[in-house]
Write a structure and sequence with these properties.
Layout: H1 6-9, H2 22-33, E1 40-44, H3 51-63, H4 76-82, E2 89-93, H5 100-110, E3 120-125, H6 132-143, E4 149-155, H7 163-166, E5 170-173, H8 179-193, E6 196-197, H9 199-209, H10 213-224, E7 230-231, H11 233-240, H12 245-257, H13 260-273, H14 277-295, H15 307-317, H16 322-341, H17 347-359, H18 384-388, H19 402-411, H20 413-423, H21 425-431, E8 434-440, E9 443-448, H22 451-459, H23 462-474, E10 480-484, H24 485-488, H25 516-529, H26 531-540
Parallel strand pairs: 1-4, 1-5, 2-3, 3-4, 6-7, 9-10
Antiparallel strand pairs: 8-9
Helix pairs in contact: 2-3, 3-4, 5-6, 8-9, 9-10, 9-11, 12-13, 12-14, 12-15, 13-17, 14-15, 14-16, 16-17, 20-21, 20-23
Length: 574
């Protein structure tokens, strides 16, 4: 005889055994005790939170013929429902019966009275899968069913259930079960089943279940077949394919000490061990979230960590301000998106690491004593914004190679654009309105003509896509930083100068007015590459007739910021 799965063996049989849903079970229990039974219920909530189990308990409670608390689980009706033999409890999987014919068959059978029980109970699981015609056929019966019929509709997606159906039901929303509640439930089950499992393993299972009790029990059941006498945290990590907390902590240490080599070694270790990098990135984000919670005094919520790891996290949290941790969360959230599409599995994580170390926002600088006289005379000539910002460590190349890297990049810029386009068309369009103006310590500075383009480029995380393209073209990781032309100055371009002999030095008179045709020729190419102009030409059939000089852009967007410009908003060609 096959062994029963834990989630079936430990399925709740009374309202009191349903964990994490006290508001729902208390209301239903009082309704049964007071005889205030509704003809239709709608149970909404995530999977594995007890919707179907509660529906069965309700069916037992309204039909129980035993003495005392209902359901008693001792009478013939309760036992028949427990073993699935009661004909008056009809469970329908709406995912397999989506058509109107199934509902018509249900309507024909509804009028028949129950065989054994007081009420005939219909449980329709995943009710949102019914077709519109099936919902319409169900409406009348759902609104005025025979007095001996109760409907319980269960769904994980209530927004897909028509409002006309919801209005005919009493709605109950099931919540995610807290990890602490799931962990306590697992310890109780493990004690009864004679399992040996350490606390860290229990907390990892509860955290991975993400609020679903059934998922937690299925994972615990799977771990019992692992073969070892005691289930430890390493078994859970091996089964789930996740890295250890130690590797995550080492990676954060590398961020705090600005040790690029140590951070890359952690990534190499993950690849060698076969740990999915997307899973590690998710763990890292959860760890960084823990830093934010520690700063806010909420470390008690980090129940999936053992006390030693929690203490180490608290020590690390002291080394950065809240804004610094928030920036790291932002960077590695962007790498999570890049990991879904990158051709090189570890590249987005490596680029996020390099960019985090290059920016140096909030990360404490190593203590370096430098005499004032040792500063090179050129340092005073740097732009004010560089002298005010924290010094960025040289993680990619020495300053002497920055100019060479910029020249290589400019010479292959069109190739970069071609690589970016299939990965992110929006990023490629915004790049047409930007210029690579310089490289600082291995970091590319992109200057945008308009502030709106810069904001959209940064908010959509386009830097990661561009960094991936640069890595493929140049063979090295190049983080991207954004600025405005109005703030940083335009890139040096060869100006059109009349071929006249040199004259003796004298005050330079104002530049003479240039003929309209000359202005049009000189600016035609630049204007044609602007994403707004290019869209108008390609979509609307517009033509550039002339180009007139204008003042330096003051950062005003070329269209209102509350309008998202995409192909669907363009008028169709007539």
């Amino acid at each position: 005889m096959s062994r029963r799965a834990l989630y079936l063996k430990w399925r709740p049989s009374t309202f009191e055994e349903v964990i994490g849903q006290e508001p729902v079970t208390r209301t239903l229990r009082h309704a049964v005790d007071q005889g205030k039974i509704s003809h239709a219920y709608l149970f909404c909530g995530p999977r594995g939170t007890g919707k179907t189990s509660t529906a069965r308990i309700l069916a037992k409670a309204v039909n129980c013929i035993g003495e005392g608390t209902r359901p008693c689980n001792a009478c013939a009706i309760c036992q028949a429902i427990n073993d699935g033999s009661l004909m008056d409890l009809i469970e329908i999987d709406a995912a397999s019966h989506t058509g109107v014919d199934s509902v018509r068959e249900l309507r024909e059978k509804v009028s028949f009275r129950p065989n054994q029980a007081r009420y005939k109970v219909y449980i329709i699981d995943e009710v949102h899968m019914l077709s519109n015609a099936a919902f319409n056929a169900l409406l009348k019966t759902l609104e005025e069913p025979p007095p001996h019929v109760i409907f319980v509709l269960a769904t994980t997606e209530p927004h897909r259930v028509p409002a006309t159906v919801i209005s005919r039901c009493q709605r109950f929303d099931f919540r995610y079960v807290p990890a602490s509640t799931i962990a306590a439930h697992l310890r109780q089950i493990a004690a009864v089943e004679g399992m040996r499992i350490d606390d860290e393993a229990v907390e990892l299972i509860a955290a991975h279940a993400a609020g679903g009790v059934r998922d937690a029990l299925s994972l615990l059941d799977q771990l019992t077949a692992y073969g070892d006498a005691e289930i430890g945290a390493e078994h859970v990590r091996a089964l789930l394919g996740i890295g250890s907390t130690e590797l995550v902590a080492r990676f954060v240490d590398a961020l705090l000490t600005r040790d690029l080599r140590a951070g890359l070694e952690v990534i190499d270790t993950l690849v060698d061990q076969g740990v999915p990098l997307r899973q590690f990135n998710a763990e890292l984000l959860e760890y960084l979230r823990g830093m934010l919670l520690v700063k806010a005094g909420g470390e008690s919520r980090l129940l999936h960590m053992n006390p030693e790891a929690r203490q180490r996290l608290a020590e690390q949290a002291k080394q950065l301000e809240l804004a610094g941790w928030a920036r790291l969360v932002e960077l590695f959230s962007q790498s999570a998106q890049g990991l879904k599409t990158s051709l090189q599995p570890q590249l987005p994580l490596e680029l996020a690491l390099v960019q985090a170390l290059s920016e140096g926002r909030g990360v404490p600088e190593p203590a370096v004593v430098r005499p004032a006289s040792a500063a090179p005379p050129e340092a005073s000539a740097k732009a004010p914004e560089v002298s005010e910002a924290p010094a960025a460590p040289a993680v990619a190349s020495a300053p002497a190679t920055d100019d060479a890297l910029l020249q290589r990049l400019r010479s292959r810029w069109q190739e970069v654009l071609r690589l970016v386009r299939p990965m992110d068309k929006d990023a490629e369009a915004f790049l047409r309105g930007a210029e690579p103006v310089r490289v600082e310590d291995g970091q590319l500075v992109l200057a945008f003509r308009y502030e709106f383009h810069k904001k959209r480029f940064e908010s959509q995380g386009c830097q990661m896509v561009v960094s991936q393209a640069l890595a493929q073209v140049l063979g090295q990781a190049v983080p991207v930083k954004c600025t405005l032309l109005g703030e940083q100055g335009r890139a040096a371009k060869p100006a059109r100068q009349p071929s006249t002999p040199a004259r003796s030095p004298e005050p330079t008179p104002p530049a003479p007015a240039v003929e309209e045709s000359t202005r049009t020729e000189s600016g035609q190419d630049d204007v044609a590459e602007d994403p707004l102009i290019r869209t108008a030409v390609e979509k609307l059939g517009a033509r550039v007739l002339e180009v007139r000089p204008a003042e330096e852009p003051a950062g005003e967007p070329p269209w209102p910021e509350d309008i998202s410009w995409d192909d669907e908003m363009m008028p169709e060609d007539e």
